[in-house]
Amino acid sequence: MSLKAIHVSEVPSLDHFPENPSLLCSSRKANNKFVVVGHRGHGMNMSQSPDQRFSALKENSILSFNAASKFSLDFIEFDVQVTRDGCPVIFHDDFIYSEEQGVVYEKRVTDVCLSEFLSYGPQRDTGKTGKPLLRKSKEGKILKWSVESDDPLCTLQEAFEKVEKPNLGFNIELKLDDNLFYSSDHLPRLLLPILQVVSDIGKDRPIIFSSFHPDAALLVRKLQTTYPVFFLTNGGTEMYYDTRRNSLEEAIKLCLEGGLQGIVSEVKGVFRNPAAVNKIKESKLSLMTYGKLNNVAEAVYMQHLMGIEGVIVDHVEEITEAVREMMKPSNRDADDTKPKPNFSERELSFLLKLIPELIQH
Q1: Contact, 87 vs 114, CB < 8 A?
Q2: Three-class DSSP category at 80
Q3: Rounded CA separation 76/42 (Å)
Q4: Nearest-angstrom CA–CA distance, 305 and 136
Q5: How many other CB atoms are found less than 10 A from the CB of residue 336?
């Protein structure tokens, strides 16, 4: 199927979504399941990390998605933006960096057309050579985007068509720039093409929408009611001008007022404020987390004990295996070579009081 840019003028009514999607909330409660989500597929890329797992596979690629699908994941998470000509593409950073004749340049993803976006990095057509794809580190350095197994950039449509496991859920993060103001007229232009692709070819695949941008999350909820919408938050670990982003309490308020189904918090935000977990559960909202601590099996187990419903992880193989062991029924007579931590209520209460102090340091 050929790729087609979808323009806002072409978007019809969005009231024909599939009737029976698998919602995270209902499926988890029905199966008492702890949900594991692959971050950007098989895990994010960190070029300067000594851990080679962070440079094994190109993040947010079909290669990474299909590699992640080999493990017992419930969802993969990826970032979606819309190009200038209205095509939803999968890319995390706000800017693409490249080099021409020794000069490094940057272009905002939403300012380039689909054909230019796909021209960076390796090409599906073996007869073509892509433009160099660089990346800006958190320290501000422009580095070559190097991975052991590379793959071309891709569109949202391609993800639906080429991810081989049909029941693997998609956690679609609606990616917007923290440093830009989006007017009420502009925001729909960035969201409607995404919803159109999901409506056209989403079929029965489980889908969650999520966003750090409060108004984007609220608008997607207004535009469709079939798929759950989660609000992403740092949980108070970073401060923003928009106060709705600055605490778990504000996240709860936003979800309840806007009819959102859940919260995805930075795990440190939850560990610093464990009392918020009960508030979220009492509000009948789902709660998941993301962050580097989710690559530590013990931190994941602690969240399971706290009542958190799922985690977004980079170390897909290790954490899916740890969760499989964690969820096994206890058998005291068996020779368990991988014993699970077993905390009493008193010990758990003590740990929940101690963790916020530990996380601060």
Answers
A1: yes
A2: strand
A3: 8
A4: 38
A5: 12
The CA angle 70-53-320, to the nearest 5 degrees, is: 40
Distance between CA atoms of 189 and 4, rounded to whole angstroms? 16
Q: What are phi and psi of 184, to 5 degrees?
A: -65, -20
Give the DSSP letter of residue 143. Answer: E
- The C-alpha angle 119, 106, 290, rounded to 5 degrees, equals 90
Contact at 8 Å (CB) between 47 and 138?
A: no
φ/ψ of 2, rounded to 5, equals -75, 150
Nearest alpha carbon to residue 356 among 180, 236, 258, 263:
236
Q: Using CA atoms, how far apart are residues 19 and 14, in angstroms rounded to an integer?
A: 13
Query: How do residues 224-266 score in pLDDT, each as one tens digit?
Result: 999 999 999 999 999 999 999 999 999 999 999 999 999 999 9
Pairing of strands 95-100, 103-108: antiparallel
- H/E stretch holding 229 reads strand 229-233
Block residue for tokens 């798929």:
227
Start-to-end Cα distance in the chain: 52
25 — pLDDT class (breaks 50, 70, 90): low
Answer yes or no: are the C-beta atoms of 113 and 84 closer than 8 Å. yes
pTM higher than 0.70? yes
Encoding tokens for residue 346?
């008193």
Which three-class secondary structure state does DSSP give residue 37? strand
Phi then psi for 321, rounded to 5 degrees? -65, -40
